[in-house]
Q: What sequence folds into this?
């Protein structure tokens, strides 16, 4: 049995953010809290959404103090703001962090407790407040997933929280909101989305429903990521990246992520790198480690991307995929831990803890090749020595 779950409605296309009031009205939601970050409070997007709502007779308040990689403390503050008002839903507006924050407080406001209580393997299916997601990056797929990631700042651990309560009831997927993303963010969030598609497809929890979306997303993202990176104003590339990112989000929400994400979260927690960036620096090396245990599926990824010659064997196609992922990182100038100035001694020192946290998240167990702690440590060492311009 596979449980499929998606937002009840997705409005996909340029300009759909203007339909926010209609989405709320259709759901009979009347008192939203807009959850965003200081950037979107300053650039006017949060105000634009609030004005759209006000013009439709829907009063709202805005909380704009969410932080990158939201923490237990930041979520407590946001929850206090939410419960001090009278709200019947939350609107997550921004990149992955504001949306993940909105998800967390929607659950805490109804069910109480601390975010640590909701860490996997706990599954929170019982609903909190309804969540409406308006993503501004083409990457996390958070608008369509039943996950949120909150950092336990006392233990430097990114906690994966799972359950239908974290799945938005509706999402407005408007690529025009991504047109101003800088090149680095475009590349990192784009590789995150490609990672979602590949991991959903090779996962031990893969299934035909998720497969179809993963393959479609993978190809769309692959065909457009370089263009979106080099020509950020290219509307067609932006539209395709947004579509692919949401499809990849649905795919991994209904399959899973795997070893790349398992290893990426601890890097983010210890070294405060953007989620997409820590995935990107891992993806080629982790794929190289994994392919032999899932040759058919990895080969299918390569064929789906149309990067293999006709008649190439599974082993040959899997190798083509690994090489292409290394090349993609080079083309997108993905930095490695060394070039980011991370001290080698610190990297080595926390490697055993990072490996421990990776395994505890459960994601590596979904990988075609399930690694030991020692193998994960060796991969962290490899990424240190290899990655980066
Ligand atoms: Fe991700």
A:
């Amino acid at each position: 049995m596979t449980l499929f779950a998606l937002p009840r409605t997705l409005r996909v296309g340029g300009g759909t953010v203007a339909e926010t009031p209609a989405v709320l009205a259709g759901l009979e939601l009347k008192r939203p809290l807009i959850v965003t970050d200081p950037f979107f409070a300053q650039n006017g997007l949060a105000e634009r959404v609030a004005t759209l709502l006000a013009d439709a007779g829907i009063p709202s308040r805005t909380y704009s103090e969410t932080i990158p990689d939201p923490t237990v403390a930041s979520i407590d503050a946001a929850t206090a703001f939410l419960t001090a008002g009278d709200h019947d839903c939350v609107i997550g507006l921004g990149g992955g962090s504001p949306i993940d924050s909105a998800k967390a407080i929607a659950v805490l406001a109804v069910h109480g407790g601390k975010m640590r209580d909701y860490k996997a393997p706990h599954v929170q299916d019982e609903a909190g407040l309804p969540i409406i997601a308006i993503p501004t990056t083409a990457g996390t797929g958070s608008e369509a997933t039943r996950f949120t990631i909150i950092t336990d700042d006392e233990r430097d651990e990114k906690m994966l929280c799972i359950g239908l309560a974290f799945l938005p009831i509706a999402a407005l997927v408007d690529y025009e909101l991504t047109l101003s993303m800088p090149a680095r963010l475009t590349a990192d969030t784009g590789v995150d989305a490609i990672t979602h598609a590949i991991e959903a497809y090779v996962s031990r929890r893969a299934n035909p429903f998720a497969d179809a979306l993963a393959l479609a997303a993978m190809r769309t993202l692959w065909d457009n990521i370089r263009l979106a990176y080099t020509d950020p104003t290219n509307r067609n590339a932006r539209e395709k990246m947004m579509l692919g990112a949401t499809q990849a989000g649905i795919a991994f929400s209904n399959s899973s992520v795997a070893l790349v994400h398992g290893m990426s979260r601890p890097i983010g927690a210890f070294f405060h790198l953007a989620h997409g960036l820590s995935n990107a620096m891992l993806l080629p090396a982790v794929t190289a480690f994994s392919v032999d245990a899932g040759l058919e599926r990895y080969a299918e990824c390569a064929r789906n991307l149309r990067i293999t010659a006709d008649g190439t064997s599974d082993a040959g196609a899997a190798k083509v995929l690994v090489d292409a992922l290394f090349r993609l990182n080079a083309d997108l100038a993905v930095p490695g831990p060394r070039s980011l100035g991370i001290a080698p001694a610190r990297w080595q020192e926390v490697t055993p803890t990072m490996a421990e946290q990776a395994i505890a998240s459960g994601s590596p167990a979904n990988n075609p090749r399930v690694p030991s702690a020692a193998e994960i440590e060796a991969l962290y060492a490899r990424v240190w020595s290899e990655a980066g311009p």
Summary: DSSP finds 14 helices and eight strands in the chain. Strands lie at 9-12, 32-35, 61-63, 89-94, 131-135, 147-152, 157-162, 170-173. The mean pLDDT is 95.
